[in-house]
Amino acid sequence: MLFLLFTTTLFAQNRVETSIDTTKNKIGAQFNLTLRTVVDTAETVTFPSGNNFGRMEVIRNYVVDTVKKDNRYELIKKYGLAQFDSGKYTVPSLKVFINQKPYFTDSLSVEVANVQVDTLQQKMYEIKPILGAPSASSGIWKWLLIVALLVGVGFLVYYLIKKYQKKKIDKETFKTPIEKATSLLNTLEKKELWQKGEVKAYYSELTDIARNYIEEAIEIPAMESTTSELIVGLRNASQKKKMAVSQETLENLERVLKQADLVKFAKSKPLDFEIAEDKKKIEKAILTLDNAIPVEVEEEDDILNEAQRQKLIKEKLRKKRNARIGIAIASVVGLIVGVFTFFVLTKGFDFVKDNLIGHPTKDLMEGEWVLSEYGNPSVKIETPKVLKRMDAEKAVPKEAMALIKEMQMFAYGSFIDNFYIAVSTNKFAQPVEMDLSKALEGALKMMELQGAQNIVVKQEDFATKEGITGIKGYGTMTILDPVNKKSTKAYYEILYFGQEGGLQQIIILHQEGDEYAKQISERVLNSVELKKVTQ
């Protein structure tokens, strides 16, 4: 896209006096630039503004002094300039508007000298190591780490719940007390507690298995009874239920239970072979007691009840598995919501949205930038993406093309995208004097034809690092999307540079209030370098 309008620039006699306090100074020292003009009392004067005059940085911008001389005013405008690199520089010709009519100051040459360092008096320091720039892929690893952490939390919750439920399931899935006791004895053996020196814990579990079996199978309060009470209860139950239990079985069981009491309360330490023998005695006692219990004939109703019980057990297992999965998912979701809420409260919603969901101009800003030259006379510029060549004849009126010898256009994005940038250059067929302000007005009128409305215009001078001056138009506008008919508030910046036989233009357009786009624009404009046209 390119918007050009050519007019003749009016020149007049130089009414502005230019002076500087010194032409040579040290790095960082201030040069005092003074502009003077004498005008009638009714005339209006606009002095140049900006952060840079050529490659000289404006570090102070003084208020205009007014001195009355008869029926006229002498206006004195002072600037403080500095440069922080040694070398020879030019303060470019500046434009002063008197009654909207441009008058140009004289350009001045200055020299910035190095500050000599006394290496004998000043302490020298080691060279600092190079710091690596953050990689664009570092953000990807950050999010992968977060995802891995969340998955890990989910698995941990699932594992802990499964482990807890397994203890409850084990209690429910044993068909008979003897199955439970046998399984627990095998599990105890695999733990190898007494081999690791945990004899007290071993005897405690061993006797608990025996007591628990007796309580469930023979139905006496074995877990709450002392050793003596337990043996008496077993004798009574054997007589009542007509169990054929030998005196030897009861004595062996009593001996192991008393040994366990000594280990737990008197800190007794039996030998390894004694521990192994005690385990065998418990196993034999449990099997003997189980065989002594009278066998009841299983009726058909009992078989049906057992099948129903197994079905209920499977259903419970399925529900508990689903519950584990549900709790694990809920924990991960809760953690995500908690982290999301924390960052929203501390960093703001926009920060979370831009870093989690993504932002188109943020991705542009953090991507790989390209420094390249476009057109003739060339414009050297750094952009987040390579600008593509466009067909100039489709964007410029035929009457304008008749004046142009050579024209090239390059662009990224479109008029209604999140970010749009265009660079165009041309050389005229015949020498043409240009009014850049009129060219800017023409560009804005062409924007109106493209759907721009409510255009607010501001204008100021602009100078590149090489001292080539032009104008900068900037402001806001409302853009209507021709597809969805929605309007968007946009911010634009347009640069025009007119050199002998050539014109260079840069357009930047993005949504108003987009901080990432604003940073992109600043970086792009700070990188602009122009090739001077030679005839």
Question: What does this 3D model show about the protein?
Answer:
The protein has 535 residues and is an alpha+beta fold. The chain has three domains: 16-113, Immunoglobulin-like (Sandwich), CATH 2.60.40; 174-292, Four Helix Bundle (Hemerythrin (Met), subunit A), CATH 1.20.120; 362-530, Mog1/PsbP, alpha/beta/alpha sandwich (Protein Transport Mog1p, Chain A, 3-Layer(aba) Sandwich). It contains twelve helices and 23 strands. The strands form five sheets. Strands 15, 16, 17, 18, 19, 20, 21 and 22 form an eight-stranded antiparallel beta sheet that branches. Strands 1, 3, 5, 6, 7 and 8 form a six-stranded antiparallel beta sheet that branches. Strands 2-12-9 form a three-stranded mixed beta sheet, with no helix packed on it. A hairpin with a 2-residue loop joins strand 7 (65-69) and strand 8. Helix 3 packs across helix 5, helix 4 (227-240) runs antiparallel to helix 5 and helix 5 packs across helix 6. The longest helix has 48 residues, at 300-347. The model is unreliable at 1-13 and 130-138 (pLDDT under 50).
